[in-house]
UniProtKB/TrEMBL annotation:
Residues 102-266 form the Integrase catalytic domain. It comes from Glaciimonas immobilis. SUPFAM superfamilies: Ribonuclease H-like. GO terms for biological process: DNA integration. This is Putative transposase. It holds the Pfam family rve. It comes from the Bacteria.
Amino acid sequence: MAQWSVTNRLVTIRVACQAFGISETCYRYCAKLSSENTVIADWLVCLTSNQRNWGFGLCFLYLRNVKGFKWNHKRVYRIYRALELNLRIKPCQRIVRDVPLALAVPTKINDMWSMDFMHDQLADGRSIRLFNVIDDFNREGLCIEVDFSLPSKRVIRALNQVIEWRGKPRAIRCDNGPEYISAVTSAWATKRGISIEFIQPGNLQQNAYVERYNRTVRYDWLAHHLFDSIDEVQNFATSWLWTYNHDRPHMGLGGITPKQKTGTGRLTSTFSAS
């Protein structure tokens, strides 16, 4: 209204501002569209296209902690909402359960690993299994082994391959599956000096780190693609594992990646000591 009054030469700017209760600074202010907004929008579209289950939190943490941009979270969120990239919020389903034993929290690398199996199908309907191993301290994915069948000997072989480059863990947490409770696995752990810690039957919360990791595997890539062969799944899993460890911010680590939590020197010293 002040601008209309001045434009039609009815009053001066000073009188118009006094009449409508605004400052002359406010009257003269012109919004400037920053070219960085386009850059932010391009990054957000690219991230949500490649990682369709990433919400605003992961996108912002990736831009801030991994790529090093200093954009304010309110500015990024405003553009995120303007592009209508927000995910649908799923309602929580609360289930009453008996209180399990407290989840053990590791304090250093190779203090506690967790392992678990996942199941899926190829495009032709054949069932496959995925064997996942993570370090509970920094949630780093150590291996994803894929095959139609993964008996105890394959589990041991996969663990030996990880131990060769990372060093052995103090203990490995797992459920009560037949591959873990077998005499072969028990003898291997005893020979290696590794403690196998089984969770209480039916209390998957005690294996929460790897169960949460399994969900990430499922929703980040496994449920998004149809694979024709075991080799195709294995190659994709190996490529994704590098991205997960180096580029994907982890909410449980304060928005940094597993490798940022680790630190190169700390990993080297731990490996040498093992």
